[in-house]
Amino acid sequence: MKISIIGLGWLGFPLAQALLERGHTVCGTTTTPDKLPALQAAGIDAHLLRLTPKPEPDAPRPWLDADVLIVTIPPKASQFGAAFYPQQIAHLAEAVSSSAIKRVIHISSTSVYPEQNRVMVEDDVLTVAQSAAPALLQAERIWRRVSSYQPHATILRCGGLMGYDRLPGRYMAGKTVDSGASPVNYIHRDDAIGLIVVVLEKRLLGTYNLVAPEHPTRHEVYQTSCARLGFALPAFVEPVTPIPFKVIDSKRVTESTAYTFLYPDPLTFV
Length: 270
Fold this sequence. Notes:
270 residues; alpha/beta; seven-stranded parallel β-sheet; 15 strands
């Protein structure tokens, strides 16, 4: 297949490399001109693209000449406000609607789920009113509103992406933590890429959670990560009031793909 990836960043670049290794042709975009030579040297037909929120530059758009589009751009609500991300996706969907692209895989986040002290599955959040992150759900629903894509959109809700240079110990060393009893919903980048590839090649449609099947507590994960990396351990304290949590279930995707996680337990991510 010819695949375009919008966002050749921390997830998108190694995803592109995995797809190339499997014989696919990959086109992709970055917002950073300095990254283009390395991306192109890796065999990717890489181009500059900024969604401001409209796609810039306006033309040409070689990334529209593909069978499948994978969208991996993260929302930047703290920088541009919550409404900016759905606007980016709406403009992107408008451009895609008149292209040859037949399928879209949109990388979303398990942040859409509220913390209700229970296991959460895909059908627990179907409307904006049910979501803890309305802008993310609005972005997901844009692809479903593009009539030519119904039902050709796949939404993948990733848990906290970890692995390689992204490890809890780097962020929590020496800090005070009152949510130590809460379970984590992480996924190693290698497993996220493995699942995206199998979902792509099996042509799965619908919404799927991508989260490691085991959910140790934050206390266990932070302590283990800091100890292995040689960082100062966090100080764990009891919260003044109980902190709500959620456990994200990923059985739908594993049952649909028969995928075996490389890193089922976040305690082994280091």
